[in-house]
Design a protein that fits this description.
527 residues, mainly alpha, 86% helix, globular
Length: 527
């Protein structure tokens, strides 16, 4: 594998792959919904939510742990320990992933709500996917530790494409051939088909990563032959490292993801005490969770990509004590993310109504207003994610866990207080609580980075210059979209043209505002 892969290139490649995967995930929702129907989607949703929770426990943090530790040993040229850790991580995930898969298959009936037992067959169909996902995570982490993100990016896109095609096709085939009685049978078999697609996607990603691994295995073996270090760690030590690294990460991820569940529970419970009907509460929260959040989460994929590329880089530099270079890499990555995410945030704010009408025709004006008022959440949630990953890469998992826990506690207190004092704010309180969580989490992480890495953010270059260019771009984009829509009355065409013009305008404005040379700009945005 080439050692000339730069951080910016790795981040860019992963960001593009993550965004493509998210867009594919959005696109195939529509045909899948038509095939499954609302009841089938419900069963699929319950099975998928529990699957995600079990995946979180079994393997979610494994790629980060493998990438961090292996990259450190590679930097120290301890190739045997790096490869041994990889094998130890495989043994760990085979055991944990296997046990979790068995729990999903045989214990799913206990874990699912009492009135949603028809989702059990879909969950059982997902059980093998938990096992394969755990193994896939180890291979992705090991390859990423060698400072190349191309294999992971390709596998992510291939996984999502196969998932989209097989989910819709398998659901349609099962409904057509195995659900003769109609009614609930159709929904059950449709949900099973959709979960088969998830498994097929993960299996495709795993097969590709296995192909990459075995193509590069001779290189790994040659590295071990050059290893002159006499001390080789035991497998017991490897498992100890995995356990003490992964456990805080799992709890942190629980806190990050659990905030959405707790927010929804508190919102529903308090609004019910205010005399609001259950159907009205569900419909309002549905606008927030099904329309607003998925759009907000698309830019978040860029943060995940940046974190995946940063972890092996920062771990390697931290292992040899090069803090100045580590800070340079962090600033470099965050600057690239803000260069993209700040104009995206402005664009989502200005074009909130047409974006919602094009992507989700069934959405009400509430979803558009949520996006318009809450789009700036993107910036803080991305910064919180990146800074948390950097702290984890230098071994400060407990610090991240404390920061996430404190932020969640403040979030829940403020949410409860505002809902009782200002019930008329309704779902906007949940949105504000989400934003507060990200802002507080981000600030606490940055304070920790200053403490442990002496990190200083380049405010002008990172935030102010893209913000000025983005605001001016937003004015142009609004004028172009609403002018075109007034003339042709075609929202999709007007939206596409205004976005394309907005991209060009932003690049020109940014070059002028930041005084960045064109050749440097091209190298910055090139993948």
């Amino acid at each position: 594998m080439s050692k000339q892969n730069t951080l910016i290139k790795n981040v860019s490649i992963l960001m593009v792959a993550s965004i493509i995967s998210k867009i594919i995930g959005l696109i195939y929702r529509r045909p899948l919904g038509r095939v499954l129907g609302s009841v089938g989607l419900g069963y699929y949703g319950y099975a998928s939510n529990l699957y995600s929770l079990l995946l979180l426990i079994s393997s979610y943090s494994i790629p980060i742990a493998v990438s961090k530790i292996v990259s450190e040993w590679l930097t120290l040229q301890q190739y045997k320990n790096a490869y041994k850790f990889f094998k130890g991580a495989l043994l760990y995930t085979v055991f944990v992933g296997g046990v979790t898969a068995l729990v999903a298959f045989f214990g799913g009936g206990i874990l699912l709500p009492a009135n949603q037992k028809n989702a059990l067959p879909a969950l059982q169909a997902l059980a093998p996917t938990i096992f394969f996902s755990a193994i896939l995570g180890v291979f992705r982490g090991y390859i990423q530790a060698h400072h190349t993100m191309i294999p992971t990016s390709i596998s992510q896109i291939a996984e999502q494409i196969v998932n989209a095609i097989v989910s819709v096709l398998a659901a349609w085939i099962l409904i057509k051939n195995l659900a003769p009685t109609g009614g609930l049978d159709v929904a059950v078999y449709g949900a099973i088909g959709a979960t088969i697609g998830t498994g097929a996607g993960v299996l495709m990603g795993l097969l590709f990563m296995l192909f990459v691994f075995f193509c590069n295995r001779p290189l790994f073996l040659r590295q071990m032959l050059r290893d002159r270090h006499r001390r080789e760690e035991s497998y017991g030590k490897m498992f100890q490292i995995i356990f003490f690294m992964v456990t805080p990460m799992i709890f942190t991820t629980f806190l990050n993801n659990g905030s959405s569940y707790l927010d929804s529970y508190i919102y529903s419970s308090i609004q019910r005490t205010q005399g609001i009907m259950a159907d009205s509460i569900s419909a309002t929260y549905g606008e927030f969770s099904n329309y607003y959040l998925p759009i907000i989460n698309i830019p978040l994929a860029m943060a995940s990509a940046s974190a995946s590329a940063l972890i092996p880089e920062i771990s390697s530099l931290y292992a040899i004590g090069s803090l100045k270079e580590a800070n340079k890499k962090i600033n470099q990555s965050i600057r690239l993310i803000m260069f993209i995410c700040i104009p995206v945030t402005v664009g989502l704010t200005v074009l909130a109504f047409p974006i919602m009408s094009v992507l989700f025709p069934s959405a009400t004006v509430l979803a558009s207003r949520l996006l318009m008022s809450g789009a700036f959440h993107v910036i803080f949630i991305i910064l919180a994610s990146i800074t948390g990953s950097v702290l984890q890469s230098i071994g400060k998992q407990k610090v991240v866990l404390i920061n996430a826990g404190f932020s969640l506690l403040v979030n829940l207190i403020v949410l409860t207080f505002l809902l009782f004092i200002f019930p008329q704010m309704d779902i906007y309180v949940v949105m504000l609580a989400n934003i507060l969580f990200s802002v507080l989490y981000c600030v606490m992480n940055e304070i920790a980075l200053r403490k442990y890495l002496n990190y200083r953010n380049a405010l002008r270059k990172t935030y102010m210059e893209p913000l000025v260019a983005s605001v001016l771009m937003g004015v142009v984009v609004a004028f172009v979209y609403y002018g075109l829509f007034y003339l042709i009355r075609w929202s999709l065409v007007s939206l596409v043209i205004s976005v394309l013009i907005g991209v060009l305008v932003y690049l020109v404005l940014y070059v002028n505002v930041s005084k960045t040379k064109v050749d440097k700009m091209l190298s910055m945005i090139a993948v």
